[in-house]
Amino acid sequence: MSTAATNTALERGRDLTQQLNPNLEAILAERYDDLLPGFSESLIEWAYGRHYARPGLDLKTRQLCTIAALTALGGQTAPQLKINIEHTLASGASRTEIVEAIWQMAVYGGLPAAINGLNAAREVFEAADE
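Now predict its structure.
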């Protein structure tokens, strides 16, 4: 992989996270870069610059897919699910769309996973309303 391609993906990732969560890279760096130097930059480049920024799906749809996957994976993903619910709101999704994406996962991840997802959504929505 060329340096130019890496920088472009990192720049795309940074541009995208500015829209969703302007402090995300700094939060990740503070939490993880002492354990794994460069983690925050790698995540921004790879996840956001190479995946979320791809053409083919709009950002809101990608975020709804992320919420669905995290919900189906179960309760251990609650911290990431909450962050991605916030990102999904920032991408323009409604609360109803988020709740429906979570509820749809009751078929695939089971009722406990969907209930955990609904609880995460409730916490994010209540915090946003305060």
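The chain has eight helices and no strands.
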